[in-house]
Design goal:
With 281 residues, the protein is α/β, with parallel strands linked by helices. It has 13 helices and eight strands.
Length: 281
Amino acid sequence: MEQIDIVYRMMDRYSDTFELARTAADIERIFKAGKIASLIGMEGGHSIDGSLGTLRMFYKLGARYMTLTHSANTPWADSATDKPEHQGLTMFGEAVVREMNWLGMLVDLSHTSPDTMKAALRITQAPVIFSHSSARAVNDSPRNVPDDVLAQMPMNGGIVMVTFVPSFVSAEVREYNALSAEQKKREPEPRATMAQVAGHIDHIKKVAGINHIGLGSDFDGFTSVPQNLEDVSKFPILFAELLRRGYTRDDLKKIAGLNLLRVMRQVEQAAARLQKASPFH
């Protein structure tokens, strides 16, 4: 709640630059007005402390997505980077996904285990997102999305937002990070590259399709950065590389934001349908 308070105070102080967006239509309106559309999300289901009432209140405060886990398991969902406890989702975890569908909150499956991903995809009645994950077939990091899950994206309608985190992008960086301090002294430190990020986009396009790709840089989540993707000013270099690889301008518009806006609209439509069928929760 304190972090949400910071978002509101920042938008109040810099109201000429930022405005809170709760819907896809808000994003388009704010963007056309020349401002930055600011969304509130929660990275980790631990934030609701096992309470659907708390989840509903966070939605009322403006939160529009929640990552089911962060780096550790919650009491109701398994994380990608913790020892499995629940084989995916518990019954309460399934109830969380259903409640998020009913509210119109995006279910974010980044950070979750493959079993949690598959359980959520079985339960959800709306498209999901992976807010910052890449392709596991390209780099076998537990934080990336396996092909059997990528292949479910067309049926679900969801989106995988490719991240720039070096150890998720580059197998060489991941392997270097696993070395001991002594071994690292003897090895030159590799760097992830923009071309490797484009390689993850290529793979997701091949398995899931162009309608299921976005960008989730996670620039606030790491310090070392890929070559030629040091900050947001370098996004055009990535898009130029994708054009060179045969992507069309329409493809790039989808990756840059139209796919995510489509997912948001479908999540909003699913919520309207579910609320009409069952008005009280």
